[in-house]
Write a structure and sequence with these properties.
- The complex is a heterodimer of chains A (158) and B (185).
- By secondary structure, chain A is mostly helical.
- Chain A has 6 helices and no strands.
- In chain A, helix 2 packs across helix 3 and helix 5 runs antiparallel to helix 6.
- The model of chain A has no long low-confidence stretch (mean pLDDT 88).
- In chain B, helix 2 packs antiparallel against helix 3, helix 2 crosses helix 5 and helix 4 packs across helix 5.
- Chain B has a domain of 118 residues.
- The radius of gyration of chain B is 18 Å and the shape is globular.
- The chains are: A mainly alpha (158), B mainly alpha (185).
- The interface between A and B is large, with 93 and 108 residues.
């Protein structure tokens, strides 16, 4: 994302900083990856669906080829025990990477109008339902998302 | 060659459609990004279908995080390991198609409503849910290593590195591969 900002705003001058932030706030609320959503909306705004498709392709194609080539290499190594051990170890670090994103979001919770107790309750309920009980995500979100939305909506009353 | 295209388990249209359908559904639920739907991908691919082992599932995601490009590409690696390139196509198209249509539609609807009360309620109300999903994802990814002594120290070290330095995630992932081969995690 910082790279996207540097190129789009500073190097090419395709949008202003404010336009970038407005686009980012929309992209974050939508389902799907933020950077992908941004590329789609930006491409669509300038060149219609062709622009959306080409910015999506430009963003994804080369990295997709690289990552699938890596996966194929790992596959070639087959079921060798050291490969399985390495994958397991990499998975632990992947968990750390995801948890560091969570840690960053926790800092952002400070300004949340729902207050620390409600927030903590929602965090724990989501974690227990999805990570512990392994309930389907559809069901969990169908219950917890409306609760969060309703509380936030009433607290944001102007 | 066939294994590269269609995967080791052979190809069935029904399984392919189920893979596509499940990832398409999750695409619409990915409020905090595709990574927040990892526990449900695991529930489906590893638990319900048994298409991948725990380690192969966690490893797929780690591999994608080590490679350049948008993080969402991890879904292509999961699909590839389930059913070759056909599987990668199913999971990637499933993950991108619905959210793509929504994004383009929302982009046309306009950005001037970005600060409305409804949008703010959406961001603030769902922030804790997103954090809960990320914590669950962390738990699921460490699943194959829960009983090894090095797991939680390595997780803690990774978090500290990511928060305190600007180091590329490639390095801790390589360290993780070594720690795995040494049997620490």
């Amino acid at each position: 994302m910082p790279v996207a900002q540097r190129i789009l705003v500073e190097q090419r001058g395709w949008m202003t900083r404010d336009e970038f932030l407005a686009l980012l706030s929309i992209a974050q609320v939508l389902p799907g990856p933020n950077i992908v959503n941004m590329a789609l909306i930006f491409g669509d705004r300038h060149f219609g669906w062709r622009g959306a498709l080409s910015s999506l392709g430009g963003l994804m194609l080369a990295p997709l080829v690289i990552v699938l080539a890596l996966a194929a290499l790992v596959r070639q190594a087959g079921e060798a025990p050291f490969v399985l051990d390495a994958l397991r170890g990499m998975g632990v670090v992947a968990a750390g990477l995801v948890l560091s994103t969570a840690a960053r979001l926790v800092t952002a919770l400070r300004g949340n109008r729902m207050g620390p107790l409600v927030c903590l309750g929602l965090v724990l309920a989501t974690m227990a339902a999805v990570g512990g009980l392994r309930l389907p995500l559809v069901a969990v979100l169908a219950v917890l998302a409306p609760i969060g939305l309703a509380i936030a909506w009433t607290r944001l009353r102007p | 060659m066939t294994e590269l295209l269609l995967g080791a388990q052979g190809w069935s249209p029904l399984a392919w459609a189920q893979l596509f359908g499940h990832f398409a559904l999750l695409s619409l639920l990915a409020i905090g990004g595709a990574i927040t739907t990892v526990p449900d991908m695991h529930r489906f691919v590893v638990g319900e279908r048994g298409w991948l082992s725990d380690s192969a599932f966690s490893g797929s995601i780690a591999l994608a995080q080590a490679a350049p490009g948008p993080n969402v590409l991890f879904v292509a690696v999961i699909g590839f390991n389930v059913a070759g390139l056909a599987g990668a196509g199913a999971t990637l198209a499933g993950s991108l198609l619905p959210s793509t249509l929504v994004a383009v539609a929302a982009g046309r609807y306009g950005t001037q409503r970005a600060h409305s009360r409804a949008l703010r309620a959406f961001t603030e109300g769902l922030a804790p849910v997103t954090i809960g999903l990320l914590l669950a994802t962390g738990w699921v990814l460490t699943e194959p290593s829960h009983d090894r002594w090095g797991t939680w120290p390595l997780v803690a070290a990774t978090i500290a590195l990511m928060l305190r330095t600007r180091i590329s995630p490639v390095w801790p992932i390589i360290a993780g591969a070594l720690a795995g081969m040494l049997g620490w995690v």
